[in-house]
């Protein structure tokens, strides 16, 4: 069945009709917001029509369905993306032209759903896009946070956080499904009793009920009628405004209870790669995990009845990191308490249904919930975890007889905490890491004890990004140029991008490639001018580091590297280098003092280089405010140099690295995460690698002394001194003392420079120096840039999802077009 598409004239008519019916106005009279509503609802109608066409196919064929549980889905704006998937952008663009609608401004009317922090949430969004493109039946499941990740403002160089109330004007893309509301229970107590057949059963009473109300957002498959849903659960109190209690003067108490329930889906926690044992966070996790599993079970029963043996063949449950891990005991609870299955059978079904992806090896990010909190908040789940743990330890005893300490490390409950990673590993059929190096580290260290028992359950599946959003949508000019060179087959088979390789040798193609980059730089410049009033030098190298602010990602090393370059130019009037604009985009967790201080430092350096007549034309430092998906869409296509500086062994994969590469940026980075695979794919001549390897980092722990570098390297010593001598902030010379101290002495008993910033800094600066020399060789640089784009096809999330499907989920592609 081919997809029907609206013609240009049909689109014009539809938009005019919507404006007339919704707002009683014409195109000329409409506000930009009204135009957005009219256009978006036209696109929505097209999607819903496809949904109707494809609806029922899965149920009729009884195909297996995936539930991808994730506390975050950083989906980005939908309108443009949906137009790309409808493959009808051309007609829309023509219609806009004739109606006098500015399309960029139209897209910008849409509030961006900020339902995620960074990599993990964006990965979930790319995965949904690829699942739909590959026509695999799936549902993304998360929380409908009323407030997404905070909006960032920079005021006097400091980060200020503002609330992100993205739902203020409603959300055109979601459909509320009150008919599929579920109850989620918190607190109370559990009693056991013996039923008529002599079986011990459990009764949970005295709990607080929170309603989980689902809202579905469609995720359209590229050029297909396939539509999957992203289901976001919203917390609602079952209490309605009760007139009786109102009259009795208990209004305030009734309202208080209502708010306590509804606060669960109020706001996204802004910590990335960091765990904090907050009760509300645990409530959020259980809330959406429970609702999802209840729905998955009901949906299964509707199609397959009570044939539980079929469950793992028809339902795949995937937990995106440990945040939805409580879904595991929740499925056990439903199978045992609600449907009367015996423990062993329930456990077997559960393990065969769940798979788990780990996204970090940082110990501060591993979730451990205090046992008494779990016991109080989720008493029945706690009992199940205890029983699971008991049985697990018995099994482990057979393998690791007498090794108490090892078994203790592997336990689900131990030393007063519930260890979510151990729960997920013990109860999943498959565990995977997100790049090869990360999977190796999991096997060698984090999950080594488990790996020794069942090595085959541990996989490495390298992350990917959707080339539809990150190339076709974000960089239409490059996409057309690729079409022109190799045809448009790459849009459906991204691996075909490799056919671009020979075009490196084509001088005319190189110039066209350069022109696209230049135009994208001009667009980014206008973006920065209108948003922040900053003028960019579009003749300079755009050198970008855009990602969450974290110590291990080493934005600080980048900043100190800029200081070293500044000093070289300042002290040598003949210093010759191409002008460069260092662009940073990064949000710091609001409570992460040092991360916020690094933002302040970057802005101080920005002022310093701008004031010095020797450096002001050669170095620019700009901080792009409120880095988010839409900002990334403007930034990636305009970037020449991609900074991927994490301390080796710390960045599980990285996905920004892939987005830059796909858009023809050259990477400077460490052998960490997916940088290793980028290196393998582009070859050593098309990437700038420097610094300690993961093994060297390991060997250096306890041995490395940052003060040795400080004492022996005068350039390093100078920038360190500048942190405290008033160079950066004459009115407050102590401003950056904390950073100085952390690098040289460590804080509060901790080690000095635990992320090897000073250790890698000299090699980093040397590599940057070589890079800027190469940039001046225009032909060489363009060859590298084209090479990077050409080799980026393997980093499409279509490849990643195919691997997950072959090795973990085994879903069948629906036969619908
Ligand atoms: C946990 C408990 C309480 C509060 C917050 C959290 C929390 C929230 C977000 C813990 C971790 C995260 C996010 C982690 C993350 O984004 N990890 C990144 O995942 C990417 C996709 O696999 C990788 O590419 C990155 O390397 C990894 O850092």
- Write out the distinct hetero groups bound to the structure: ligand 26Q
- Secondary-structure-based class equals alpha/beta
Annotation field: number of helices:
34
What fraction strand?
5-15%
Biggest sheet features: 10 strands, mixed
**Average pLDDT reading:** 97
Terminal-residue CA separation: 4 Å
Structure characterization notes:
The chain is α/β, with parallel strands linked by helices and 817 residues long. It is built from 34 helices and 23 strands. Strands 1, 2, 5, 6, 9, 10, 11, 12, 16 and 17 form a ten-stranded mixed sheet that branches. A six-stranded parallel sheet has the order 20-19-18-21-22-23, with helices on both faces. Helix 24 links the parallel strand 19 (580-585) and strand 20. Helix 23 (555-571) packs across helix 32 (757-776) and helix 29 packs across helix 30. The longest helix has 26 residues, at 279-304. The model has no long low-confidence stretch (mean pLDDT 97). Ligand 26Q binds next to helix 7.
Please outline the helices and strands.
Elements (H helix, E strand, L loop, with lengths): L7 H16 L8 H23 L2 H5 L3 E5 L9 H7 L3 H11 L3 H6 L10 H15 L4 E6 L7 E5 L2 E5 L12 E2 L5 E5 L2 E6 L5 E6 L2 E13 L6 E10 L6 H5 L3 H12 L16 H26 L6 H4 E6 L6 H12 L4 H11 E4 L10 E3 H7 L1 H21 L4 H7 L2 E2 L2 E3 H8 L2 E4 L2 H11 L1 H6 L4 E3 L6 H7 L2 H11 L20 H26 L8 E6 L8 H17 L8 E6 L7 H19 L7 E6 L4 H7 L5 E4 L11 H7 L3 E4 L5 H8 L5 E2 L4 H7 L5 H7 L1 H9 L14 H8 L12 H20 L1 H13 L6 H13 L8
Parallel strand pairs: 1-2, 1-11, 2-10, 11-12, 12-16, 16-17, 18-19, 18-21, 19-20, 21-22, 22-23
Antiparallel strand pairs: 3-4, 5-9, 6-9, 7-8, 9-10, 13-15, 14-15
Bound molecules: ligand 26Q.
């Amino acid at each position: 069945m081919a997809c029907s598409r609206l013609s240009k004239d049909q689109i014009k008519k539809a938009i005019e009709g919507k404006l007339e019916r919704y707002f009683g106005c014409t195109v000329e009279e409409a506000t930009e917001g009204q135009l957005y509503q009219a256009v978006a609802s036209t696109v929505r109608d097209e999607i819903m029509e496809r949904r109707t066409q494809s609806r029922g196919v899965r149920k009729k064929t009884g195909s297996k369905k995936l539930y991808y549980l994730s506390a975050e889905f950083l989906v980005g704006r939908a309108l443009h993306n949906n137009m790309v998937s409808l493959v009808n952008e051309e007609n829309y663009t023509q219609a806009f032209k004739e109606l006098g609608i500015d399309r960029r401004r139209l897209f910008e009317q849409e509030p961006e759903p900020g339902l995620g922090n960074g990599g993990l949430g964006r990965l979930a969004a790319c995965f949904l896009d690829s699942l739909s493109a590959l026509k695999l039946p799936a549902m993304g499941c998360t929380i409908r946070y009323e407030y997404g990740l905070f909006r960032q403002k920079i005021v006097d160089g400091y980060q200020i956080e503002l609330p992100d109330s993205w739902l203020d004007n409603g959300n055109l893309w979601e459909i509320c499904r009150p008919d599929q509301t579920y109850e989620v229970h918190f607190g109370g107590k559990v009693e056991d009793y013996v039923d008529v057949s002599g079986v011990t059963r459990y009764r949970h009473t005295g709990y607080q009920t929170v309603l989980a109300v689902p809202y579905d957002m469609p995720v359209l498959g590229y050029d297909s009628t396939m539509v999957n849903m992203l289901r976001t659960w919203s917390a609602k109190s079952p209490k309605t405004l009760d007139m009786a209690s109102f009259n009795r003067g208990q209004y305030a108490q009734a309202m208080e209870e209502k708010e306590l329930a509804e606060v669960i889906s109020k706001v996204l926690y802004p910590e990335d790669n960091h765990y904090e044992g907050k009760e509300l966070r645990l409530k959020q996790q259980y809330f959406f995990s429970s609702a999802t599993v209840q729905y998955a079970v009901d949906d299964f029963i509707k199609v397959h009845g009570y044939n539980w043996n079929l469950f793992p063949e028809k339902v795949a449950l995937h937990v995106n990191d440990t945040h939805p891990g409580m879904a595991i005991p929740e499925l056990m609870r439903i199978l045992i308490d609600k449907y009367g299955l015996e423990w062993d059978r329930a456990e077997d079904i559960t393990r065969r249904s769940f798979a788990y992806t780990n996204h970090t090896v940082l110990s501060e990010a591993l979730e451990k919930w205090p046992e008494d909190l779990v016991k109080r908040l989720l008493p029945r789940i706690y009992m199940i975890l205890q029983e699971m743990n008991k049985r697990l330890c018995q099994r482990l005893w057979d393998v690791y007889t007498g090794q108490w300490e090892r078994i203790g490390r592997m336990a689900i409950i131990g030393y007063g905490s519930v260890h979510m990673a151990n729960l997920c590993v013990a109860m999943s059929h498959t565990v995977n890491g997100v790049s090869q190096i990360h999977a190796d580290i999991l096997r060698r260290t984090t999950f080594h004890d488990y790996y020794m028992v069942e090595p085959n359950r541990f996989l490495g599946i390298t992350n990917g990004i959707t080339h539809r959003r990150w190339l076709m949508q974000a960089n239409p000019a490059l996409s057309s140029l690729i079409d022109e060179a190799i045809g448009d087959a790459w849009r459906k088979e991204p691996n075909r991008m490799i056919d671009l390789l020979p075009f490196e040798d084509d001088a005319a193609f190189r110039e066209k490639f350069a022109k696209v980059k230049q135009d994208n730089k001009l667009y980014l410049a206008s973006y920065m001018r209108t948003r922040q009033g900053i003028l960019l030098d579009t003749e300079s190298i755009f050198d970008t580091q855009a990602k969450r602010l974290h110590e291990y990602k080493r934005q600080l090393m980048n900043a100190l590297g800029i200081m070293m370059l500044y000093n070289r130019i300042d002290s040598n009037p003949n210093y010759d280098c191409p002008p460069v604009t260092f662009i940073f985009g990064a949000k710091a967790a609001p409570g992460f003092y040092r991360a916020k201080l690094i933002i302040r430092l970057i802005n101080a350096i920005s002022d310093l280089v701008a004031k010095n007549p020797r450096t002001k034309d050669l170095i620019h430092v700009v901080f792009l405010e409120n880095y988010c998906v839409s900002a990334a869409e403007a930034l990636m296509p305009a970037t020449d140099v991609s900074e991927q500086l994490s301390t080796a062994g710390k960045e599980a994969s990285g996905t920004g690295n892939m987005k830059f590469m796909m858009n023809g940026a050259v990477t400077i980075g460490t052998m960490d995460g997916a940088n290793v695979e980028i290196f393998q794919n582009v070859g050593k001549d098309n990437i700038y690698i420097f610094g300690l390897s993961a093994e060297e980092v390991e060997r250096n722990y306890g041995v490395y002394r940052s003060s040795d570098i400080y004492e022996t390297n005068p350039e390093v010593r100078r920038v360190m001194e500048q942190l405290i001598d008033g160079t950066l902030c004459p009115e407050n010379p102590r401003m950056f003392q904390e950073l100085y101290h952390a690098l040289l002495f460590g804080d509060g008993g901790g080690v000095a420079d635990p992320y090897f910033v000073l250790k890698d800094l000299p090699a980093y600066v040397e590599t940057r120096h070589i890079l800027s020399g190469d940039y001046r060789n225009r032909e060489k640089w363009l060859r590298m840039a084209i090479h990077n784009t050409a080799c980026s096809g393997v980093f499409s999330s279509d490849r990643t999802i195919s691997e997950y499907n072959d090795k973990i989920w085994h879903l069948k592609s629906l036969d619908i077009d």
